[in-house]
Amino acid sequence: MKLAVLVFVAVALVASASAVHKMPLFPRHELERSVLSEAQAYLSQRYTARLTGANEPLTDYKDAQYYGPISLGTPAQDFTVILDTGSSNLWVPSSKCKITELACDLHHKYNSGKSSTYKANGESFAIQYGKGSLSGFLSEDDLGIAGLTVKGQTFAEATHFPGITFIVAKADGILGLAWPTIAVDGVVPPFQNMVSQKLIDEPVFGVYLSRDVNATVGGEITFGGYDSKYQAGDFHWVPLTNQTYWEFALPKITVNGKTIATNVHGIADTGTSLIAMPMAMAAEFNSAIGATPLPTGEAIVQCSKIPTMPKMEVTLNGQVFTLTAEQYVLQISAEGKTECISGIMGIALPPQIGELVILGDVFLGTVYTAFDNGNSRVGFAPLK
């Protein structure tokens, strides 16, 4: 089987005779305290925009912790990107940015004039973000990822960045891994091009996310299959309810024996660190674990009580997945102090969207996940 593997590591890649393709990626960074207070508005924007047909707001880099290198062009121009199952476009900063665009100055920029495989497109590109939009234009070039070369990948050269979010971003851009139906400008996403160009044998990718901020290995994404070395058991498969996000039915969530959600929809989103759910639902959950709500939207718990706090149970297609408090509570360190924050946060969504639970890295870090494009399903396996 052809496998292309992205490995989240901080060390250089060692040459190997193995047919498995590996790329070094940056390990997960510890969340900053300020991130959580911004996350509510960001997540509400992200899913309100896409599910109501408006422009999609971009991923908040400070909220997405897993990213790694790709290249564009010939010879290769290197970038780091968020690997995001909650969006479908690839974009990087452009060398055609104005001198006043500080976000461009602080990141790697794509220069079409230096690539022999560049093809002009020129169609305008814009994604709404808060009160402004990230904008630029489309181009086409060869994409290097996980040892593979995707020929003629259409991507966006970003020339304008709203606010300061992209100035302080650790990654240069985003590589979306969701479905083509939510791609801006109808661009074919990189993963679909991997499949159509027969670079991988199976239309599947597997994701392992380490939750240890001190680990040298931050995780691994495997294109063309999955890596069983992370599995302690078989996958439990959950069919998708539509082909936009990786969305599925979520029958029940309980905590401390109390049901807080029934017959809602879930989304597996590697671009979100938290588990996000409707405001009332999150308030009920955090009350059940003894958390104290803060005016900024977070809920704080006493760190000393984590070992005795109740478990969270998420039921997916008849299988119960259990999270301990050690897994769903975030420990945030700043100025020599440690605060313990609930990893469950409320988001405000329009009534027409219905009840939606975003299973971000707090959940995905407890399982090994297979995203099966060919069979329109997601699989979750226990970690070793």
From TrEMBL:
Molecular functions per Gene Ontology: aspartic-type endopeptidase activity
GO BP terms: proteolysis
Disulfide bonds: C97-C104, C303-C340
Annotated Peptidase A1 domain residues: 66-381
Keywords of this entry: Aspartyl protease, Disulfide bond, Glycoprotein, Hydrolase, Protease, Signal
Keyword set includes Signal: yes
Keyword Glycoprotein: yes
Record family assignment: Belongs to the peptidase A1 family.
InterPro entries: Aspartic_peptidase_A1 (IPR001461), Aspartic_peptidase_AS (IPR001969), PEPTIDASE_A1 (IPR033121), Peptidase_aspartic_dom_sf (IPR021109)
Signal peptide interval: 1-19
Gene3D superfamilies (alphabetical): Acid Proteases
Protein name: Peptidase A1 domain-containing protein
